[in-house]
Specification:
elongated, 80% helix, mainly alpha
Length: 92
């Protein structure tokens, strides 16, 4: 495989989960809203949020293994970084 193709596939592997987060952002934002409004405990939020992260990563792995390519939205990286920050803060 040419080096350029390897670099492109590597880049795609990194941004794919962010793109899936963007596509399902309404679910993530609903979860955040429930937590901020006090309708969820920290523990319940962490469990639900962790499950979303796992499902997103599983979905990305399935798409990659089946060679299904998506055209990522430009905003997906920023939103993915936002969710990653929340995950990292909860995980520490």
């Amino acid at each position: 495989m040419p080096k350029e193709a390897e670099i492109e596939l590597s880049r795609y592997s990194i941004i794919l989960p962010f793109h899936l987060d963007w596509k399902t952002r309404d679910q993530s934002l609903k979860l955040l809203k429930e937590f901020v409004e006090g309708n969820m405990t920290v523990s319940d939020f962490w469990i639900a949020f962790s499950n979303r992260v796992s499902l997103t990563n599983d979905g990305a792995d399935i798409l990659k293994s089946n060679l299904i390519l998506l055209l990522p939205n430009e905003k997906s990286m920023e939103f993915g970084d936002f969710l990653e920050t929340i995950y990292d803060d909860c995980d520490s």
